[in-house]
Design goal:
Length: 361
Amino acid sequence: MLYSLFSNLVDTFSFFNVFKYLTVRTGLSIFTSMIVVFIVGNPLINYFSSKKIHNPIRDDGPSEHIIKKIGTPTMGGLMILLGVFSGVLLWGDLSNPYNWFLIYIAGSFGLLGAYDDFQKIKKNNSSGISSKFKITIQIILALIGILILYFSSESNEIENLYFPFFKNLVINLGWFFIPFYLFVLVGSSNAVNLTDGLDGLATVPVILVAGCFAFISYVTGNIVFSEYLQITYIKGVGEASVFCGSIIGACLGFLWFNAPPAKIFMGDTGSLSLGGSLGAIGIITKHEIVLAITGGLFVLEAASVIAQVISFKLTGKRIFKMAPIHHHFEKKGWAESTVVIRFWIISIILAMIGLATLKLR
């Protein structure tokens, strides 16, 4: 909104030309979304506390969780979404179809997450809606988003899959790009959801991945930088950096309240929307595999759950003391803060490796 307004004033006041720069608008989106979350944070927490809007804690979880975390408000993802949408709507180019694709994914997955959180609160258990129903709705929402992207995007690269570390290795997926994109969107959404089990554990890795993709989307959408780095140029995708900036700012603001001991949890409202958004950004920038590298912690968390389920069904034995894997280390005696900080360190390392793939080709 403000971007459109200031763009119209450039001819009259040349100073407003500064708002055409993606770097400036990305910085403003970070600041705006963070301030919005700071403003709505305490009132929202107080309201949720008064209405007893909190998730029941898993009975089979670590004993500390049952004692310390019970009664903590949830659905903090609402404040994250308020921040994200404020940043991108004020400073993003709303004529750009990529922005609307990202807004749709964040909003629709956030609504699904809110419904799941509501069911957990209503039923007073940690199950919420069934996994089959959740995944089915995620697939439907993702398919609608993919169709929106396909018919609105001007890029000819939508069916291509690019591999990091190789200059010319590309596979044309044909119509298989649809199930592949579904896998990326649904998989990334659920991976972040599974990671969100300790105070601040998912928030910082989301910030790191969003930061990486703010840079990746900027250089991918810049014909000079993309040619220098020998990556595919995609016209208009640089606008995704503003959306990434909004995620960074909103999550920084949320971390203020979510840092141990958390005053509020993001819930499925936040984790599903943030995970889906990261998957969507990976898709439009054509860096889906780099997303798996930078977001490797999310992949590890999801893989631990899958491995645990398969092992138990086939052999009747569990690989981990508890899944997702962060609970395994808690069961081994690690303090929650130790698990969180060490997992953050892993995320930082993976983020650096992901960025290094841009040059190592």
